[in-house]
Amino acid sequence: MDYTKRLNELRQHLATLPCDALLIEHPTHLLYLTGMEVSIGKVVVSQQEACLIVDGRYFEKCCQQTLYRTILSEESALKNWLAEQNIKTVGFDPDKLSYQGFLLLSQSLAPAIAVTPVESPVQKMRLIKDAEEIICLKQAARLGYEGYEYIVSLLQAGITETELAFELEFFWKKRGGKKLAFDPIIAFGANGSMPHYRAGSTRLQSNTSVLIDIGVVLHHYHSDMTRVVYFGTPPTEIQMIYAIVKEAKQRAMELCRPGTLVGELDQTARSFIASKGYGDYFTHSLGHGVGLDIHEPPTLRSHGSFSTQPLQAGMVITIEPGIYLSGIGGVRLEDTILITETGYENLTEPQ
């Protein structure tokens, strides 16, 4: 990854903000900027210098990178560095710092240094994936799909949801997967009516639907996909809602190109499902961004802060409409989509 390029881009954003330096604490932002994976730390960037402040657990590892000056976290470390750089105002992301954290930060830097909230430019930078990130996302998606094919091959009467989840994790880790992107959603039958169900002790029986929503982390990047298979002969209603969800997803995907507003995708899929009488049973947003986090901006909703966000080449999003019927089960179909200059590329194989 080109961390120098990212630092330079961050400084371009800093030039437009009402502060002399940026304080960044979100662990995923730190990973994006430095390549260092830490649970607690700070990146501080001015136009001239940049530092990474970490505690003793990460100090030696972080000293291996040379783009940021690594400083051992002590009570006065941040204040001393800012004073060295003659910083008068430091900006922070209010979405990532609690009010109590803000008060503590302000008190620790007063009176010489003022603290002001600014919208995080790092989140904006992460919206558009570069070529190396796209390679990582494609590799993660490929490994994710291989895991799906593997657990489908294990379906047999009597196996539990948890057993499949365990086999899946073992399969991925043997092939280089770092960890699960999230707890696998493997839902037999009526369990599928709960969108964020977690694998339990239910055993697979004949003539049962199997909803599989899974993802793996590879090279820090996440995969995400959902499929529904039927162990036996599916009843008419399951076949019908499957066809509706599949068509809704396809209609939204056909709009995936630069310039389309995020809200249009959600509205298109949601309106189609509603036209078939199942509008009240599609109970979540159409999708979300994917990258270093499993859920990133933009959130695909027809209302809210991202609804007027135009798609741009380099964005990676999920499209995942669903219909959920209590006591019967659910159908959700999800693909991970790369927005290209001319349209889109499906990173997860079509079902």
Automatic annotation (TrEMBL):
Residue ranges constituting the Creatinase N-terminal domain according to the UniProt record: 6-128
GO MF assignments: aminopeptidase activity; metal ion binding; metallopeptidase activity; proline dipeptidase activity
Domain Peptidase M24: residue ranges: 136-341
Protein name: Putative aminopeptidase P
GO biological process terms on file: proteolysis
EC number: 3.4.13.9
Gene3D superfamilies in UniProt: Creatinase/methionine aminopeptidase superfamily (3.90.230.10), Creatinase/prolidase N-terminal domain (3.40.350.10)
PROSITE patterns per the UniProt record, alphabetical: PROLINE_PEPTIDASE
InterPro entries (alphabetical): Creatin/AminoP/Spt16_N (IPR029149), Creatinase/aminopeptidase-like (IPR036005), Creatinase_N (IPR000587), Pept_M24 (IPR000994), Peptidase_M24B (IPR050659), Peptidase_M24B_aminopep-P_CS (IPR001131)
Keyword line: Aminopeptidase, Dipeptidase, Hydrolase, Metal-binding, Metalloprotease, Protease
Record family assignment: Belongs to the peptidase M24B family.
